[in-house]
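Can't paste images in this forum, so I'm doing it all in text. The chain is below; anyone willing to post the predicted structure tokens underneath?
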Amino acid sequence: MLGPSDSLDRYLKGLSAGALLVIPVSGSERPLKGTTGLLDWRLCGLLSRLIIQGKISGADGEFTLIPVRYHHGSRNLLCVGTGKRTAADGSARRAERIREKVSKLGFSEVYFIDGFCGAKELASKFHGLKTGWIT
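Text version of the structure:
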């Protein structure tokens, strides 16, 4: 039986170099929980270290692009600050800001962690790109 960690590993290994994984980071959630917390664990605490160092705060409207090495390949993460609210408290304004930022970055594939409110609907706003979500 596969657990959440196995699914995440398969997903990360399968990402192409042109893909971007968009993840929510709360300004008030410590330690990180859910799929974001699992991702942090699989990356040996990289996200937690960046938070402790003050390079990521999770403030609403914060966007941080992080290239990471994972299993002999490069992966790209976009941390989106959700403020004191959780990612499930998403708003249309946040969704539009995410769409604008991701469009400017020029990735050919965009995937969202299903912690975002309306991740499926958000993914549908990216016309012409390969999109999806991971739980």
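The mean pLDDT is 78. Residues 92-105 form the longest helix (14 residues).
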